[in-house]
């Protein structure tokens, strides 16, 4: 179950990033995260902390609840 949530969250981040025509590098600049971390999130290899999820939400100009619609 944990892995499924991580993969779905990563897919959501990738979809939002691509919908906004952002590269991983550009999203990294917006969030302050390393590009490698963005890639690991998108592949479901990292379990981001809640504070980091909030940073993604702000970068995509949406609420936490909007971001977490998986």
TrEMBL record:
Q: What PROSITE patterns does UniProt report for this protein, alphabetically?
A: HTH_CROC1
Q: Which Pfam families match?
A: HTH_3 (PF01381)
Fetch the Gene3D superfamilies from UniProt: lambda repressor-like DNA-binding domains
Q: Which domain of life is it from?
A: Bacteria
Domain HTH cro/C1-type, by residue range, is: 13-67
What keywords is this UniProt entry annotated with?
Answer: DNA-binding, Transcription, Transcription regulation
Instruction: Extract the InterPro entries matched here.
Output: Cro/C1-type_HTH, Lambda_DNA-bd_dom_sf, TransReg_Diox_bact_type
Record keywords: Transcription included?
Answer: yes
| Protein's UniProt name | XRE family transcriptional regulator
């Amino acid at each position: 179950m944990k892995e499924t949530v991580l993969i779905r969250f990563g897919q959501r981040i990738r979809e939002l990033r691509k919908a906004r025509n952002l590269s991983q590098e550009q999203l990294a600049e917006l969030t302050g995260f390393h590009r490698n971390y963005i890639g690991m999130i998108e592949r479901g290899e990292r379990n981001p902390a809640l504070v980091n999820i909030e940073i993604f939400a702000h970068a995509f100009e949406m609420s936490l609840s909007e971001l977490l619609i998986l």
